[in-house]
């Protein structure tokens, strides 16, 4: 780990509290707490349509809109289009976990830090501005035109930094994310989150309780 020059981070769940944020955003439009969970349940199935080749590459805003429309049908809610677009854009405004900004700021002193997210570049930039995430670069799905855990996402992120894979560490609260990163040669760090995986399932290079402890 002393050779690691860059850390790349999962965002939804690891870096930001998507659930608490989306419950709040949904409530603005009279939607129950259940709506946020149902919408998140659409996430992997919609990503899989791209991963499987059933749908050509589209960014996460498009997939979030498809998922939202499905959830509203299930709930019997008929929101106007402008409200649906506002809710999709709410994924650009998610609150960071309390330890994140200080932890990233400390890590930035010694390492390159960047998201390796399934969010697209515009979403990641807007989220960084909103949540004050001090990234050095924006990496992840859009530069690879693929969605994690497709190995191309991790490779493209390391390649964009011009670093050997073993000098890049993937940080996530998802064991499957770390397993995919390890499979292509990245180092791994697990940070638990209450809405994601709470325990490591493998001997990751680092297990830390918070981003501050990781730093």
Automatic annotation (TrEMBL):
Keyword Hydrolase: yes
Alphabetical keyword list: Hydrolase
Pfam families: Hydrolase
Keyword field contains Nucleus: no
InterPro entries reported in the protein's UniProt record: 2-HAD (IPR006328), HAD-like_sf (IPR036412), HAD-SF_hydro_IA (IPR006439), HAD_sf (IPR023214), PGP-like_dom2 (IPR023198), S-2-haloacid_dehalogenase (IPR051540)
Family: Belongs to the HAD-like hydrolase superfamily. S-2-haloalkanoic acid dehalogenase family.
Protein name: Haloacid dehalogenase type II
Species assigned in the record: Solirubrobacter deserti
């Amino acid at each position: 780990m002393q050779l690691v020059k860059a850390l790349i981070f999962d965002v939804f769940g690891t870096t930001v509290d998507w659930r608490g944020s989306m419950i709040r955003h949904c409530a603005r439009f009279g939607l129950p707490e259940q709506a946020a969970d149902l919408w998140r349940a659409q996430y992997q199935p919609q990503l899989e349509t791209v991963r499987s080749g059933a749908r050509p590459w589209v960014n996460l805003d498009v997939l979030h809109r498809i998922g939202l429309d499905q959830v509203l049908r299930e709930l019997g809610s008929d929101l106007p289009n402008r409200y649906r677009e506002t809710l999709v854009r709410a994924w650009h405004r998610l609150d960071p976990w309390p330890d994140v900004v200080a932890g990233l700021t400390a890590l930035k002193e010694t390492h390159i830090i960047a998201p390796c997210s399934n969010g697209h570049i515009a979403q990641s930039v807007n989220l960084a501005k909103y949540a004050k995430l001090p990234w050095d670069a924006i990496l992840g799905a859009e530069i690879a035109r693929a969605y994690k855990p497709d190995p191309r996402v991790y490779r493209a992120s390391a390649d964009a930094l011009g670093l050997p894979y073993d000098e890049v560490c993937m940080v996530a609260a998802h064991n499957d994310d770390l397993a995919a990163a390890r499979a292509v040669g990245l180092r791994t760090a697990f940070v638990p989150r209450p809405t994601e995986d709470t325990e490591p399932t493998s001997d990751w290079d680092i297990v830390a309780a918070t981003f501050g402890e990781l730093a």
